[in-house]
Amino acid sequence: MTEDNTMKNHRVAIWAVAVSSLLWLAAPATAQLPRERLFARLDADKDGKLSKEELPPRQQSNFEEIDANGDGFISREEFDAYSGRARPAREPGRARVQRMQPAHADLSYGPHERNTIDLYLAESSTPTPLVLYIHGGGFRSGDKGSVGREDLRTFLGEGWSVAAINYRLTDVAPAPAQYLDCARALQFLRHNASRWNLNPKLVASTGGSAGAGTSMWLAFHDDLADPESEDRIARESTRLTCIAVSDGQSSYDPRFAEKIGIPRPNFERHGFFEPFYDIKLAGEDTPEAYRRYEEAAPITYLTKDDPPALLQYSYANEEVTPESSLGLVVHHPKFGIALKEEMDKLGIECVVQFRDLGEEGMIRHGGGELVQPVDFLRKHFQATAGKE
Question: What is the residue-averaged pLDDT of the chain?
Answer without folding.
Answer: 85
